[in-house]
Amino acid sequence: MQEAQFISLLWLIGILAEAMTGALAAGRKQMDLFGVVIIGCATAIGGGTLRDILLGNYPIIWVENVHYLIAIAFASLLTVIIAPLMRYLSKLFLAIDALGLAVFSIIGAQKTLALGFSPVVAVVMGVVTGVFGGVIRDILCNQVPLIFRKELYAIISLMTASLYIGLSYLGVTEWVNLIMCLSFGFSFRMLALKYKWSMPTFDYQAEIDTHGH
Amino acid sequence: MQEAQFISLLWLIGILAEAMTGALAAGRKQMDLFGVVIIGCATAIGGGTLRDILLGNYPIIWVENVHYLIAIAFASLLTVIIAPLMRYLSKLFLAIDALGLAVFSIIGAQKTLALGFSPVVAVVMGVVTGVFGGVIRDILCNQVPLIFRKELYAIISLMTASLYIGLSYLGVTEWVNLIMCLSFGFSFRMLALKYKWSMPTFDYQAEIDTHGH
Amino acid sequence: MQEAQFISLLWLIGILAEAMTGALAAGRKQMDLFGVVIIGCATAIGGGTLRDILLGNYPIIWVENVHYLIAIAFASLLTVIIAPLMRYLSKLFLAIDALGLAVFSIIGAQKTLALGFSPVVAVVMGVVTGVFGGVIRDILCNQVPLIFRKELYAIISLMTASLYIGLSYLGVTEWVNLIMCLSFGFSFRMLALKYKWSMPTFDYQAEIDTHGH
Prior knowledge:
The structure is a homotrimer. Chain A has one domain (3-197). The first copy, chain A, is 77% helix and 0% strand. Chain A has nine helices and no strands. The longest helix of chain A is centred in the first third of the chain and has 26 residues, at 3-28. Chain A starts with a helix and ends with a helix. The relative contact order of chain A is 0.13. The model of chain A is unreliable at 206-213 (pLDDT under 50). Chains in contact: A-B, A-C, B-C. Chains A, B, C: It is a multi-pass membrane protein. Chains A, B, C: Its main location: membrane.
């Protein structure tokens, strides 16, 4: 198997798993099956779509290969059927989501570099690819995006994308680079979940309250 | 009258009616006149705009023909004045909205096919054109998109777009195709409203509650 | 100093100030530092980004010059540190925001005209550039956009952009035009704040309540 095939396979696992977590989020809002499919699609490919729109990189991958979209729609609907089982799989899904975070961040950075943009833009687009599917999901579900408030997530995306680009520039072989970045991103996210690591929070309201405003 | 003129006329009626329902939604949130215009515009042309951005199809229609945007803004403001009458016209508006759903879905599919994309992409873009104006309206009004929870709407868009594309491939004349698809979409939507047909809902919260999680 | 440098300098001041107000909005929602940076960036450059996407004008400025994005991110984080001082600076920030509104509206109109679009499109894009950063900020913070409900804001953007285009067509020198439009937009916004001028509101709910529906 080539590096490109390996990362594509992980990407496919990632988008299907994200579709399923998106479907669950739709279920928490009692949406109908159409809402389930839309939220599943937005969660799975919203980040990559936003990246391509920001870069003006057309055609967007799921427009060119619409079978990805169909697979995502099926995964979303399947979730409705197997939802009773999902509780027993929640640890598996957290693990796939952690892997997906690393995979999406690496792919976002890769594609941006391949289009000739600068490394800093590639890091930014790694983060957009890694986390904005979840942001769009939360906007459609009418809630403040989770990743702005919960355990370390986006910063891991940023560090994984940076590590990938840094190692590429140092001339590290693609295979070694991929394995190192996937291990780093995955382990860091799992540790953040286990030990509830989170970013410092900025609470401006509280301070105003303190001063009686 | 040609087919193209006929469908354009229906499209114009559709965007003006959508602008007016958007303006009413803004009124329900006590927005000011600027908010009324923005929500009116987003409801009327948000779906087609999102389609063109996803396809990279520039210039967007209202950028090329800005008089459409001006007409939509006027229709939105007019709504504020005639709002007291709107209650008596609610059935008329539901009927125009049902027709608009069919028209937008057909046009979205038509334009996508004309750009050389595959039939499946054309169906997806028919749905985007048909329903995402309402989704953007609801996001701007800070509520969970209605179409993810109410009577059959998006699925009718999907079926109308599919029917149009299917009949085109079978070589059905454009006029016959249009009349059949418009009749199908319009009647199906009116029946769904009358008999409160809706999609099955996915309620994941309830199940968790049942199991005490 | 050239006109272009002068307006660029004001633009830079504007985006940094907008980033800081965005960071405060994130603090009001108790977001983490990553959320602060995202909301800061969205507030500062969301309007210009949306304009470029709607016009298909690639590459987007902060993709081409990513140091703007880095400066905005730093300004957002700096806000967290100096937040205790911000209360004493609130009048200064309202003034910079008023100036920024005029600057963004003028730049949005300028860039659109330079791309060969019509004056009406230029006015629309002036408004998009001037106010949609705040709209995107409010969507990400899960609240109804402020500018649809508060003191005159968007209409000042529209009038400033129109004035700029009108004076350009009349052959007024660029320097004179800039000074006039900046003075007009800035003063109008400051007066609107001082005297709480606002647009008429459209309250559709109230009417329905009155009629018992």
